[in-house]
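Methods: holo model generation. Sequences were used as deposited, without trimming of termini or removal of tags, and paired with ligand SMILES retrieved from the corresponding compound records. Each pair was processed once, and we did not select among multiple samples. The sequence and 3VV SMILES for this entry were:
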Amino acid sequence: MSADMDFRLEDIDDAEIARRLSIVEPLTDSVRDLVDAVIRTEVDDAELIAARTAIEAIVTRLRARQKDKGYGVAFTRDFTGMPWGNAATGARNAVAPPLRLSKVDGVTRGDVVLGAAYEGPGGHVHGGIAALLLDQLVGETAAADNMPSFTGTLTVRYLRPTPLGPVTLTGRVTGTEGRKTFVHGELSDADGVTVEADAVMIRPKSFPSRDQISAAITGHDTPTADKPTP
Ligand SMILES: CCCCCCCC/C=C\CCCCCCCC(=O)SCCNC(=O)CCNC(=O)[C@H](O)C(C)(C)COP(=O)(O)OP(=O)(O)OC[C@H]1O[C@@H](n2cnc3c(N)ncnc32)[C@H](O)[C@@H]1OP(=O)(O)O
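and the model returned the structure below.
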């Protein structure tokens, strides 16, 4: 598995990450807004056709220079990950709601608003979207030292329909056994839990160590703690 994974070095510091995010996040937000507008607009056909022409022109401009495949996962020298294409959280991915998770006292938590783009049953969240968010939640909950575990098994129980709107995710580790980490995750609306998940997360035996990734991206044997010169 590791052979296919796209790790690369972005030799930048925190200020440069913040600068890039300040440019791309508003762009991604605009595209997210576009998706929502295309779903909800009631303008006439001529306006829809005009919009399509304008959007196609923008796509052509953006494709003037582009990567061959997905964004991959870039790391800085001090091992800050930049998974900006990630389907649930990616800063450059308008498909991502986007989910932002943080860990406090062993609990991973995040709030996100799910709008029209995430609909399954009318007015309610698509079951696949709930599973996507829970998968990311259990992944980040199991991750240690910025090194991921992969989802081996994700069991999802839909307790009641989740209305579109604000939801909260919480996850906690319930046990470990060798390379396996067991995680429980919940997705809730204002009235309580709507979907819950239990996951077996596995640190693959073939996955490179942090030092090996560092060596691969920097050409050195060990990660350097030094920040690059801006
Ligand atoms: C990516 C780089 C990131 C850098 C990040 C920057 C920082 C970010 C930090 C955090 C981000 C988090 C982002 C999370 C994203 C969401 C998570 C996902 O969506 S992951 C994608 C979906 N999952 C897959 O594609 C797995 C595909 N499957 C595999 O790769 C393998 O099958 C794998 C790793 C699951 C197991 O492979 P083996 O070769 O290591 O496993 P063996 O050695 O056979 O078994 C080890 C133990 O695990 C059990 N096991 C194996 N497969 C299992 C399974 N599918 N379910 C349950 N248990 C399983 C076995 O029974 C064994 O248990 P016994 O030690 O005997 O007790």
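Residues 2-218 form a domain with the Thiol Ester Dehydrase; Chain A fold (CATH 3.10.129.10).
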